[in-house]
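Weekly structure sync, notes
Attendees: PL (lead), two postdocs, one rotation student
Agenda item 3: pending single-chain targets
PL asked that the sequence for the first pending target be pasted directly into the notes so everyone works from the same version. It is reproduced below exactly as submitted, 125 residues in total.
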Amino acid sequence: MQRYETEPGHQVQFDWGEFTYEQEGIIHKFYGFTAVLGYSRMRFVTFVKRCDTPTLIRCLMEAFEYFGGLTRSALTDRMKSVLLEMQENKPRWNPRFADFMVSIGVTARVCKPYTHRRKARSSAP
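Predicted structure, written out during the meeting:
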């Protein structure tokens, strides 16, 4: 497998992971948010109870603060908190997510379907 390299400050990749645990016979669900810088592989991880758009935006803000700045682009998969649908191979972004990305000056990009290798940094355990 060939590594996909980016220049410093160029890209962050982010994704959710779902986790469960049992406590007193009740199954609880929570989510892990991971953001990884493309060049340095520096990783930010946090755990939350929801994976909706407002929570995603908060997690991204925390990640950029942790990294000490913004990247030029952000790569993600087709999560519902980011992408409503693809229209003629162009993303139709969740408006709240799109407005946030424009406000901070970061270009959002979405992986092509079934190309997890391209975004493997944030999907790795």
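Discussion points:
- The chain has a mean pLDDT of 87.
- The beta strands are 11-23, 26-37, 43-48, 73-76, 83-87, 90-93, 107-110.
Action: rotation student to compare against the earlier draft before next sync.
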